[in-house]
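Q: What does the predicted 3D structure of vesicle-fusing ATPase look like?
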Amino acid sequence: MSQRGDLSTAILNRKIRPNRLIVEDSVNDDNSVVNLSQAKMTELQLFRGDTVLLKGKKKKDTLCIVINADDCPNENIRMNRVVRNNLRVRVADVVSIQACPDVTYGRRIHVLPIDDTVEGLTGNLFEVFLKPYFLESYRPVHKGDVFVVRGGLRAVEFKVVETDPAPCCLIAPDTIIHTEGAPIRREDEESQLNAVGYDDIGGCRKQLAQIKEMVELPLRHPSLFKTIGVRPPRGILLFGPPGTGKTLIARAVANETGAFFFLINGPEIMSKLAGESESNLRKAFDVAERNGPSIIFIDELDAIAPKRDKTHGEVERRIVSQLLTLMDGLKSSANIIVMAATNRPNSIDSALRRFGRFDREIEIGIPDVIGRLEVLRIHSKNMKLSDDVNLEEVAHETHGHVGADLASLCSEAALQQIREKMELIDLDDDMIDAEVLDSLAISMDNFRFAMKRSSPSALRETVVEVPNVTWEDIGGLTTVKTELQELVQYPVEHPEKYLKFGMQPSRGVLFYGPPGCGKTLLAKAIANECQANFICIKGPELLTMWFGESEANVRDIFDKARAAAPCVMFFDELDSIAKSRGASVSDAGGAADRVINQILTEMDGINVKKNVFIIGATNRPDIIDPAILRPGRLDQLIYIPLPDEKSREMIFQAKLSKSPIAPDVDIKYLARVTQGYSGADLTEICQRACKIAIRQSIEAEQHMQRMREGGMDVDEDNDPVPMITKGHFEEAMRHARRSVTDADIRKYEMFSQTLQTSRGFGSNFRFPATNPSVVSQGGGSTGANFVDEQDDDLYS
């Protein structure tokens, strides 16, 4: 298995060869020179002053003159920033080098300056800059390269636009140098320089390996597939949630392979004229075939190739048929790969997904912690970060975020840093102080602020929140808290323990008990404590009047939860959607029964790798369908009883922690006399006492105002009602009421007891003292025999 895991990314491993060298910065200012150690030059059979061809990333190469440097390490090559930019590499990247002895002399070359480097310059550029640079130096040039020339006090950048007779040549004394034409805009040059490559994609190493196998191998080495006797893959379908980088990957593949890239945006090829949409598709494939090797990339494939049996428009059906015939008609000799992207793979016509068309489907999923860290490093590589920034912590706390969300998070953190320095910035000024610019550095607090504002895009339409309720806000329920921590926090924080003991964690809990005992509050606290996303589902909201829509709602919510894992799903009032099946006679078309069936299948279908926990809360456990309560679904049934005296005291303290309380208010006595009150009832007592204090305070202020108007002296510093007093609580207790009757409590406790007796063996279970294999089949006296004598069950 490990060997297979290694092979899946084998294509990413770079082969070690003597001509592959690590880039390091050069102190030499010359754009035409690279330095190697003498030992490496001898190994590669190179001599001082030889012309060499260097190959970098994104199919970029350039010509340079090699010179030995004694202090250069054996495996390194030194080049300055200009050469690195031409090769699209950075320091510590790898380039390959080879001798290039047969370079021709150039007849003519055309060079143009880059606009921002020649601003304000007067005089002849050729005489001042180019003539001294090229005169009798026999410099090698490559079409598309940029070089820097210093003259006087200025440095001017030029780009080689055209060379004759070959793309790379040496500049001889008789080479004609043309400089006619408008300067090249910096933006155009920068956009080419910043073209997306594999380095700009994080969080999908395995998927990149698959794409390289299917795209780069057939385009670069078609002979591999011919030799082995199979057709290379023709089509690749990338699917996954929005913002994971599907389009970005396609652009990176095109840039890195140097293939011709033809982009088709799904909706753009549609036309109102009959036959024109198909004609647009045919033209795209014709252009790609003429410019091979090429990649055709169809973005938003579901817009032009929906399922034919479900579309009413004739145009869509014809386009699907045209796409099928075009993909089948691709010649095996034509070096064309068709890539497509969609976030709705199941709405694409099934004929497109068979072998020979889009036969490879690669899911670009939501990145895990390591993937998120890679993405954050890529987005923050050009950002000015302060020393306290810990990107690993940010990656750990951004569950469910895709690449686009993380990019948005970085820009929000940067904006927050600018807001903090806003008092130093005057919008009306033409220039901002250099000191202010130097002081800008994004801090960890800026990232924390951005994280509070950011939510996973997969869950934007579902209200997902990490609640701000902590264990301290919940009074009592100590054993329940411990049980919940083990159930939800352990799988998120200690997954290795579950691997060690070879068991899957439990996936669901049902809270039951009288109303107002803190079931919803507990669910919020557990989501906050383990920093999981929290989706609250109100039972009645799932049911709609349309046939099949209620089940679709359930499916959508579970899909979103899986996308944002780890996620706590909280079904409040579970009894409203999970009544025992068959009991709801008046139900229109059995919608509630179908919803339960859908919930059951989703619970069983929760992907093992996804940390999705389901918490249900109900105060009618007796009417819930028993299938939901079986082990493997909501298997942990936790009774949330009315609070005991100690818990009531803790609830009072939690509720009154932010209120000014008079020292003579005896909270312990309040807890003692409120036997049988639920948490909600106790909260109501606190609210009523607070309301009475507010009323008295307002009345006292009005009285003082009247005294002031009557010309009487009033002590302004005197606060008539500084805190909630004993009298306020006494008044509140006169109106206090219990929301749960004794009969209700007996019902819950009976249900809890019957559950206990039906579930376990109590304290009776013991393994037999002797070896079980020795015990006779009838079950000896030492054996643990729990079978009822009267039981006529077939399997007992």
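A (community wiki): The structure tokens above were generated from the sequence. Residues 1-5, 775-796 have pLDDT under 50 and may be disordered. The chain has six domains: 20-99, 108-191, 198-363, 369-453, 464-581+591-639, 645-707+721-739.
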